[in-house]
Amino acid sequence: MNHIDVSPNFGGLIYSVNNFVANLIGIAEPVFTASVLGDDSNVSGWRIVFFASAGLSVLSNLIYVIWGTAERQPWTVHIP
Prior knowledge:
mainly alpha; 71% helix; transmembrane
């Protein structure tokens, strides 16, 4: 819902770009997992995959907590 708070007129466009990036990460994750694990799926390889995924989640959340806002942006067009 933050997309609509930031820009009610461009909320759909912002959401679609955000969803596109999220899907790219979803596509890249199996490739990353396969490259880390290789032919043997041992516990240490799965730890790397888990901590990389957890680190990406924590980093993206931290970026939003620091710089995220729900205020309407000045670049949005105001239509009465």
